[in-house]
Design brief:
Layout (H helix, E strand, L loop, with lengths): L2 E10 L5 E9 L2 E7 H15 L16 H20 L5 H15 L6 E7 L5 E7 L4 H12 L9 E10 L2 E7 L6 H8 L5 E6 L5 H6 L3 H16 L7 H13 L2 H8 L8 E2 L3 E3 L6 E7 L3 E7 L5 E7 L3 E11 L10 E10 L5 E7 L3 H29 L23 E7 L2 E9 L7
Parallel strand pairs: 1-17, 4-8
Antiparallel strand pairs: 1-2, 2-3, 4-5, 6-7, 6-8, 9-11, 10-11, 10-16, 11-12, 12-13, 14-15, 15-16, 17-18
């Protein structure tokens, strides 16, 4: 999860007093708005229970703040929110309750019974009877029940916010956090083209075998495979395509997936067309993230296509940068420009930053976190098995490359400031540490 506060809004109360509202973004989209007093009260409640394990909270100023002090507080609040949400010593219930309350109050959606339509990859919909205050983890359980999926598979599928659902085509905006309120998130988009979709959320191809053992899991994988193929996320060769069409026509789902698993890029998550600075500046690129690689298919100035595979094991760290708005108006929150960069090893201790300009930068970062987690889990399982088989041999566990903070010289976030009297942009940059994400 990526929390950041790129936008602040100055407001005036009934008595003429000035206060600041912080726009809290989660994975690149506005999640809620809150005041300093909201977070301060929450911090006091947490400290009564969890004490010193909490990070420092920004101090309260009783006199007017300068812009420098104001920006420092914004950054400290951002870091506080990120660290608290990532702290395993703090009860998730306490964190989630506050965040859900803030999201619901921001968009002024009352707690009520409602019907949420959840999209399947083939365009069909599952209608779930929920409350507007139900978090994503609860809604996912309800959808699982509707689809007759076993609870053991809850870790393999997630709810995603998608847009542009038309003719079988759609764009994935983000994966919903467990505490996020799907009904509120959907309403906050104010876009009829946006929907909640259930999709597989893992990258390890070996997990397919586990999911395929269940008929309902097999069906959901099958629907997503067909959807991804039709959208061009993976492209089979002519002979493979002919065989896949034949299996699809006869409804042989398991055999279809077994053939699909042999197709290049099957199981990858594909981003929308974007711009990459490698191998040439401003190169149109299609980016796919897989279990073992980041694959970039780039159109060169010569109109030739060049495909580059960046091995996941050689990626040391990555960052997401918020560059401001393409319109130049800081109040245009819906038009924020982003870029995703990762540091890659070319051998002989030669490292280079690869930069991709895309509005799905936070989504790519989410994919990378998922791949990292799956590799770490597999390495841990492998070590456990080796320790059982060879108890007399001392095993040194090799962990997946740790994602460290980005180079401080590389700005990762721009502050955007808006007031009720007008808008003003402040060129202040600072780094988001990957260990805090």
């Amino acid at each position: 999860m990526h929390f950041n506060i790129p936008v602040i809004e100055e407001q005036t109360d009934k008595l003429g007093g000035r206060f600041v509202v912080y726009h809290v973004y989660l994975d690149g989209l506005l999640y809620c708005k809150m005041k300093y007093s909201d977070m301060h009260k929450w911090d006091e409640e947490l400290r009564r229970v969890f004490g010193d394990c909490l990070p420092p909270f920004p101090p309260n100023y009783y006199l007017s703040m300068t812009e420098t002090m104001e920006d420092e507080r914004r950054l400290l609040l951002e870091q506080y929110l990120q660290k608290v949400s990532a702290n395993s010593s703090i009860s998730k219930h306490e964190i989630y309750t506050f965040l859900r309350k803030m999201q619901q109050e921001t968009f002024k959606i009352p707690i009520q019974n409602c019907l949420l339509e959840v999209l399947l990859p083939d365009g069909e919909k599952v209608r779930a009877d929920i409350q507007s205050s139900d978090p994503a983890e609860r809604v996912l359980e309800i959808v699982f029940c509707k689809l007759q999926l076993p609870r053991q598979m809850l870790g393999y599928f997630d709810l995603f916010l998608v847009e542009g659902v038309s003719g079988g085509q759609y764009s994935v905006l983000k994966k919903l956090a467990p505490f996020e309120l799907p009904y509120v998130s959907l309403k906050s988009m104010n876009d009829e083209q946006c929907m909640i979709m259930i999709r597989k959320s893992y990258f390890d191809p070996e997990i397919d075998r586990i999911v395929m053992e269940n008929s309902c899991g097999l069906n959901l994988l099958y629907l997503q495979a067909i959807s991804d193929m039709e959208m061009g996320c993976w492209t089979p060769a002519n002979e493979q395509l002919e065989k896949l069409r034949s299996l699809q026509k006869t409804g042989r789902k398991k055999e279809f997936l077994e053939v699909a698993q042999q197709v290049k890029h099957y199981g990858y998550m594909q981003a929308e067309a974007c711009i990459c600075e490698h191998p040439e500046p401003n190169s149109p690129t299609v980016v796919r993230v897989g279990y073992e690689e980041i694959n970039c298919c780039t159109q060169l100035l010569s109109n030739q296509a060049e495909e580059t595979s960046f091995e996941i094991s050689k990626v040391r760290c990555w960052s997401v940068r918020l560059l401001g708005t393409s319109t130049g108006n800081p109040s245009e929150e819906d038009d924020i420009k982003l870029e995703f960069s990762f540091e890659y090893c070319y051998g002989n201790d030669t490292w280079k930053w690869i930069t991709i300009h895309t509005h799905q930068a936070f989504l790519l970062s989410t994919f990378m976190h998922q791949v990292e987690a799956e590799h770490a889990a597999k390495n841990l399982d492998l070590v456990d098995e080796m320790e059982i088989e060879m108890p007399d041999v001392q095993i040194k566990k090799q962990s997946f490359p740790k994602y460290l903070k980005t180079d401080k010289a590389r700005p990762t976030l721009t502050r955007i400031k808006s007031t009720v009297r007008g808008s003003k942009e402040d060129d202040v940059f600072e780094g988001i540490q990957e260990k805090d994400l």
